Amino acid sequence: MVTYYSDKSVQITSDAIRVGERSYPLRELVRVWHSRGARSWRAVAGRGALGAAMVGPLVAAAIGILVAVLLHSSITVTIAIVGVSCLIGLAAGPLADVLLEQMDRSYTRGARQLEIWATWRGQPVLLLETGDALRFGKIYRALQRALEVRA
Fold it and tell me: What residue ranges are annotated as transmembrane (predicted)?
């Protein structure tokens, strides 16, 4: 028996797919397909917040420089405000690194519920539902490989 995929709740072998406590022999699966659910607006809003947080220090620096120029105060105060604004702007670099990693992870997780369906004993059966796009892809590819070998 060959194992194509295995994690804590899903196992795909050359004989069957096991999801949780359920097991379906591959020879009994007539048709397998996948579908995508509705977009999670929470995930989209989270990505928007990450994008806004990335440009925040740059906007704050630009506003600080604009205020320094418009105040018409002494050269010392103007230089101090511009200097602090530039330091705030420089904070965008390290902050962007952390936020871009979080953005990357949000795309890996996905923004939709993904489902794997099969026709089993004449009835459509939901084999798996997950919001993790990376895990879904691994499971679906493993199931396809197992079914191809069976055919």
Answer: 49-71, 77-100
